[in-house]
Amino acid sequence: MSTRVYPTFVKGNPRLRVFLPNFFMKLVKSKINEPANHVRFIIPLEMTDDDVKNYLEKIYNIPVCQVQTRLYEGEIKRNHKNYLIKEPDYRMAHVTLPEDMKFEFPDLFPKAKKDKVDEDESRLLDQAADLMKQRRRNWDRKDVPTWFGL
């Protein structure tokens, strides 16, 4: 299922070509408490249960017990000019892994790292504010006292 164009085989060339699918799978965090071996993905409409299972097993080497897919209609919204705007339809795949496997959603923004970044940002902001105060202090009017204004 690949449309990528590869050069034709020439004698002597190694056959080390990897054909990747044109599908994407978006990992979704569940809003409800699901067992640790359940994972949800948003997948394209053309993808089937077998495609999802093969995708996970062949590319990521993840054993899959069961796959269930369901179609969802995109939400219809009305904008400020009273036009109707429909979001695209999508398919949700519910994947069940073996019972001994546990899936934990990756922590993209750890708390300790975030606290350190916040401290660094606040320190840099304070330094920038001090520099601005020094630069504003009557740089063009040296004879005017400081109490007169910035």
TrEMBL record:
It comes from the Eukaryota. InterPro entries: Nucleotide-bd_a/b_plait_sf, Ribosomal_uL23-like, Ribosomal_uL23/eL15/eS24_sf. The keyword Metal-binding does not apply. GO terms for biological process: mitochondrial translation. Component of the mitochondrial ribosome large subunit (39S) which comprises a 16S rRNA and about 50 distinct proteins. Belongs to the universal ribosomal protein uL23 family. It comes from Argiope bruennichi (Wasp spider). It is found in: Mitochondrion. The keyword Ribonucleoprotein applies. This is Large ribosomal subunit protein uL23m. Keywords: Mitochondrion, Ribonucleoprotein, Ribosomal protein. GO terms for molecular function: structural constituent of ribosome. GO terms for cellular component: mitochondrial large ribosomal subunit. It holds the Pfam family Ribosomal_L23.
